[in-house]
């Protein structure tokens, strides 16, 4: 029996993307306004009422971009020389189109805390038993309109976070991040084992006290920080299946939206564009 659903998402009070979904007897399939051949069939048995995706439909105009870069224009030889210098010193990250990926849903994953105060109180209890909290989070990149987007999980209507979470005592950072990614985004099917390729650590943040404030350094007067959070870039394959808990939304947010937007995303996520500036993005079209 065919089922059709339409997910309509808005960001900053403007409609970004509407994705119609079809599911048939042979297995769910994601469809949108792109060439269907560019998408994969989802895993058999995967509920195909996908989490909502947000993608920027409008990039800055050429005039605006030109103003940001200055009125001068590099010669063709100068551009080639600049590209050569960048490629020789910068790590390369392949970024694939959002349309390459298939998204579905799975059972809800409820939050352990109902408020920030509860979360900080639980952190204090765990600190007394286990010591400093260590957490890891993933930066997953896709592209839309030839511009990098970061995948974020949205809880409720306003709070966004990177996929990841707290490590178990003594757990390896890489293995712990893979475990968290499986919990948050992997399909619950042995037929589609995830292939998480964990890359470089791009940022380290410290929580000095049982408060919401975090810093990209440990203040010198703090001898016993309460949390260390590390952000890793995760290299996605050309095609992937994602399954998101039904109580969460998956957003694809462009770098220009994140940049310096502390009020909306907080200091950790809003500084990701700066953290990624040393990487060279290879926009792979399909």
Automatic annotation (TrEMBL):
Keywords recorded for this protein, A-Z: mRNA processing, Nucleus, RNA-binding
Origin: domain of life: Eukaryota
Keyword Coiled coil: no
Pfam families in alphabetical order: NUDIX_2
Main location: nucleus
InterPro entries: Cleav_polyA_spec_factor_su5
Region (Disordered): 25-89
GO cellular component terms attached to this protein's record: mRNA cleavage factor complex
Any GO molecular function: mRNA binding
Subcellular location field: Nucleus
Record CDD domains: NUDIX_Cfim25_Nudt21
GO biological process: mRNA 3'-end processing
Gene3D superfamilies, sorted: Nucleoside Triphosphate Pyrophosphohydrolase (3.90.79.10)
Biased composition (Basic and acidic residues): 76-85
Function: Component of the cleavage factor Im (CFIm) complex that plays a key role in pre-mRNA 3'-processing. Involved in association with CPSF6 or CPSF7 in pre-MRNA 3'-end poly(A) site cleavage and poly(A) addition. NUDT21/CPSF5 binds to cleavage and polyadenylation RNA substrates. The homodimer mediates simultaneous sequence-specific recognition of two 5'-UGUA-3' elements within the pre-mRNA. Binds to, but does not hydrolyze mono- and di-adenosine nucleotides. May have a role in mRNA export.
Homology family: Belongs to the Nudix hydrolase family. CPSF5 subfamily.
Protein name according to UniProt: Pre-mRNA cleavage factor Im 25 kDa subunit
Species: Eleusine coracana subsp. coracana
